[in-house]
Amino acid sequence: MKNDDVHSFFLVVVLVLAAALSPAVATAAQWQLLKSSIGVSAMHMQLLPNDRVVVFDRTDFGPSNLSLPDGRCRDDPRDWTLSHDCTAHAAEYDVATNAVRALTLETDPWCSSATLDPDGRLVQTGGANDGERAVRYFNPCFDCDWKEEPAGLAAPRWYATNHVLPDGTAIVVGGRSQPSFEFVPKNRITSAVVLPLLRDTNDPGELNNLYPFVYLNVDGNLFIFANNRSILFDYNTNTVFREYPPTPDGDPRNYPCAGSSVLLPLPPSGDNVQVLICGGAPRGAFVKASTQKLFVGALKTCLRMGINDPSPTWSIETMPSARVMGDMVLLPDGDEVLIVNGAAAGSSGWELGRDPVLAPVGYRPGAPAGVRFEVKTPTTVPRMYHSSAVLLRDGRVLVGGSNPHAFYNFTGVDYPTDLSLEAYSPEYLAPEKAKLRPRVVAAPKDLVYGERFTVRFDVAAVNEKQVRVTMLSPSFATHSFSMNQRLLILEAEETAPAVEEDEWVYEVAVVAPRSAFIAPPGYYMLFIVNGGIPSEGIWVHIQPQ
Ligand SMILES: *[C@@H]1O[C@H](CO)[C@@H](O)[C@H](O)[C@H]1NC(C)=O
Ligand SMILES: *[C@@H]1O[C@H](CO)[C@@H](O)[C@H](O)[C@H]1NC(C)=O
Ligand SMILES: *[C@@H]1O[C@H](CO)[C@@H](O)[C@H](O)[C@H]1NC(C)=O
């Protein structure tokens, strides 16, 4: 071989090796900057059934970058920083027009929790300071603003998790120094009830049981994960039915060693309910970062368990990269979970994260073990502590936030406060998939449990055998967990051309979820998925039984 040949031979070997060692990067996924600033950092986000996203932060860090209209100001002598404040700490983002409207919050919703009620109204609870016992309501109408009950909760709740129950009310679980739960509205019991799991998993100095992962199981009980333990819990009788094995490594997965978690897509039968938890930080990461400025590497593993298995065990899978403070989003195709945002070192908390992870990772729960992960196109914006992500009805993922500081600091700090909103478009939105993308042309708006209904859609290239209908609840995202995130795969008959219709129009007969244990009442986005490509969702509603 000549010298040049030797060089190119080695170059090829190196390239082949590099390709073999680094996971494939899917380039069809796209990032788009929607707004360079909405004026408020997206610590909390909720999509409402009018396609507007309520975004809010805290009220006690000083002025935001969004003024309140009409000379409105908030006078609060208890505010830690600014007792006369004419800026907004909540905003409404309109997906259709890309416009932002300032909202008026009176009490502090810092690190709070929420659900939608069956009417699509945001019911938002707790926070800090003057907001720790507040219940706040926000209606999905076009010029609404917050309504607040400053003493609506039985106990102060900061870093709690809410979940919608089958009767449409909400349970509020935990919070800092609050190992208990309660209901909103208070129609069952009016006081807080002690939950021993939260008392027993409260590591002194380190917590690790905040923002517990809570899911409604298909038997009506709640799966509750805190720190490194989890239980199946009957909130009606205050009974623990089942204690699951602890995490195999013993490491915590909740705030501040924050991993993220989802309930994997539920099949129509409700069989095989599985919980997935990804990333987090090793025990001690929070204390090491806060007292010694030692930023330990995040966890690289995901844990997955069938919670109704006869002998449930966590199976362990290794992600392409370590991640703490990620956000997990169920994509409407029902095939993939997106893991986005976060860092590779440190923990949640002010100034405690390092090494932003810019590339999301997809996890395909139905693929064979070993080939489930795929590294996606990276963003350029670090989304550290206090960032969030929610799915939009058009299939994009709205990503915002990142403010690892006690104030809004734009200069002179690592990871400046970020006020932007970005959209992540998964591969299914790529232009070359347009022929496969269905469009719903007729469907009922109101569904009844167990009732058969028909959805009519058009699409240029149908694959009758591969049409799937999914339903997704809009979730409340904050602190690496999306409360009430639930994806249902509906029982569907084979797709057929619609009679007496144009070419390309098809019909699929579907059965609505059979019970409120499978699908609590409220609003859902319904998607037709053709050969893996979802339509734009449509809003459907299920009344309480
Ligand atoms: C927010 O306002 C501050 C103070 O006026 C300004 O320095 C900063 O650039 C603004 N940031 C954004 C992202 O708008
Ligand atoms: C789970 O966490 C606790 C601390 O809360 C710790 O003492 C225990 O050893 C951990 N469990 C396992 C199996 O490592
Ligand atoms: C962050 O902002 C606050 C409030 O404006 C200010 O007091 C503080 O000095 C800033 N921190 C840094 C590191 O610039």
UniProtKB/TrEMBL annotation:
Going by the entry's taxonomy, the superkingdom of the source organism is recorded as Eukaryota
Q: Does the keyword Hydrolase apply?
A: no
Coiled-coil residue windows? none
User: Can you give the residue ranges of the Galactose oxidase-like Early set domain?
Assistant: 437-542
Q: Where is the Glyoxal oxidase N-terminal domain?
A: 43-428
> According to the UniProt entry, where is the signal peptide?
1-26
Keywords of the record = Signal
Entry-linked Pfam families: Glyoxal_oxid_N, GO-like_E_set
In Swiss-Prot or TrEMBL terms, this protein is called: Galactose oxidase
| Lineage of producing organism | Eukaryota, Viridiplantae, Streptophyta, Embryophyta, Tracheophyta
